[in-house]
Fold:
Amino acid sequence: MNFQKKKYGIVILSALALSCTSSKKIVSTTNKKLPIDIKVDSVLKLMTLDEKVGQLNQYNGFWDVTGPSPKNGQAAKKYENLKKGLVGSMLNIKGVKDVRALQKIAIEETRLGIPLIFGFDVIHGYKTISPIPLAESASWDMDAIKRSAAIAAEESAAVGINWTFAPMVDVSRDARWGRVMEGAGEDPFLGSKIAVARVQGFQGDFSYKNILACAKHFAGYALAESGRDYNTVDVSENTLQNTIFPPFKASVDAGVRTFMNSFNELNGIPATGNAYLQREVLKGDWKFDGLVVSDWGSINEMIAHGYAKDSKQAAEIALNAGSDMDMESSAYVEHLSQLVKEGKVKETLIDDAVRRVLKVKFELGLFENPYKYCDEAREAATVGKAEFQEGVLDMAKKSIVLLKNEKGLLPLKKSGQKIAIIGALANDKSSPLGSWRLAADDNSAVSVLEGLEKYSGNQLSFAKGADLSVGRTEFIWETKINTTDKSGFEEAIALAKNSDVVVMVLGEHGLQSGEGRSRSELGLPGVQEELLEAVYKANPNIILVLNNGRPLAIPWAAENIPAIVEAWQLGSQSGNAIAQVLYGDYNPSGKLPMTFPRSVGQLPLYYNYKNTGRPTMNEPDSVFWSHFIDQKNTPQFPFGFGLSYTNFAYSDLKLSSPIFTKNGKIEVSIRIKNTGKVKGKEVVQLYIRDLIGSVTRPVKELKGFEMIELEPSETKTVTFTIDEKMTDYFTANRKWETEAGDFVVFVGTNSNETLEANFNYSN
Ligand code: BGC
Structure:
């Protein structure tokens, strides 16, 4: 608190006296009534060019923070720069003690004492881990997703962090890309709703329980060719506007305060140096007034892209293109001041970037209290608290998708059964935490085995069958998968033979998805498929529980295994959530946020595809239509798909009118009846097709959904409103508008099973 008096009380007054001679207002950085922009400018006026550049520099954590200060090398340089006021933000510093130590240097040892902001990848939880974002998205439950983000915010804020690099809002259409786990799946409409929920959950009202959110990666990162991470991206403006941008725009509208650009090039220009994306669209069209951070080292990566000849030119390009803060390239701190002196970068652009950085610092309340997030007592009382565990358990149950349930295998009977549990993942307490478990303790998730053991009525036995991974499994290493050792098969087969029912937990190791983990095959890794088929021969009563960070291609299992439960990577409470679903204490209601292919060759595969000129065979057995000669066009499980322990019957799709005109609307209603024996939740989905467009339109686009809960035999009518917001798109006129013409509306239980009606729009 001393800090404001010492650093600002006098200087700000004098700076303002110089600049606003007519103003009699007493300005201070802590005056709540004063507009933030005025406070920002008053600080900016005090800054030297080097200090301004310093605010645009973000360093990764660099030494044992509370130990002796570093003497040599990169760490010593970073430390020196910190003391000189040449650092605006740090990432990967956690724990109040360390955060406080660094903040203290910024506040007490630099000339102006401008506080740092502390970033961290709080992607789906800090120490208490929620389901991976793709799994959460399968809940289609915005309140639950918002709550999950709020838990992550509260827990990480308590350890000194005030900025998360989440949500990732990249629309993903290719399951080979490892980072599909980090996003909301393939749909821009669902993705936009989820982006808003996550931004609101993280940022709240910027109390000490909230942190800055960051919409990333702007833009196109998920469309890397062949799903190979960091690969080239070449997409049309039409796809950018209609598919990629909407969740980013929704984040801006929801008040997200920061953006991150991306590693990829977009149509020949690296996103980090892309003025169209950052200046024209984001800061221009969308009027985003928060800050844009580069991705890790992405400014210098423009050299490898072949877009900048050296770090200095990369700094020039990035800043001029609208990248405000340099994450870990050191290009800005090394070169920007010189570039201004040489006239290659205008100081007004530096000022704009610095304003954005200072602004979020004011918004967070750090100028009032730079130690707002540094409270040891709160840290001790908050991290891992029981209430968080309840929250992530609730989220985990809601994220589970029932893909198949035949032979009445599910829910499991609660007593008198001999149950075999097979698969290394059944006993894995780390994989459910996923790959972004940067602060979670290894082996801290509840395993499926532990979850099932809480139900005491049945006789459970476990056999691993085969190891999934071999050797070291750490965040940065490639995970080595067991592809040869089948020595445990025999024991698993014997156990299956001697059981009434078999629960097999198979899928991906927790470190097989995420950044840098693209896959060219999407089957069950290693020897798991062989294990599954061998056990099936011994006992076909198998419930397959999948643990994975992306859609898998499992055609044999989909055809033969009677019950399949998609349980993703569900976080700290994974095993408890799975057990409650398997035993029917929780009736699953999740719906796939991404299409599951039959084979890798179908990718990219998504429900909102374009029709092509040859969508069907026009003569029997003709080859001349858009298809594969060795695979169907249809997915294994479509977008929006998910079963329940009850059934829902859809009927009476009605439109209030078959036409609407400018500023008008149509009410669409549908009746849904629970025709089964238990209470259940259903996500009713509405899709639209615009039949003719100035630009070709997708065969179906999600435009609305509503979750309802029905008792057995209960019926509800759900009503949606069709208006121009539902029918507009980025047209050949390069603007968002609804074009006159005919449309189809589809309502149903997933993107493939719907009732439909027609309507017309005229303007
Ligand atoms: C990732 C970002 C992440 C950043 C900081 C990068 O490698 O692409 O999503 O936020 O590292 O850890």
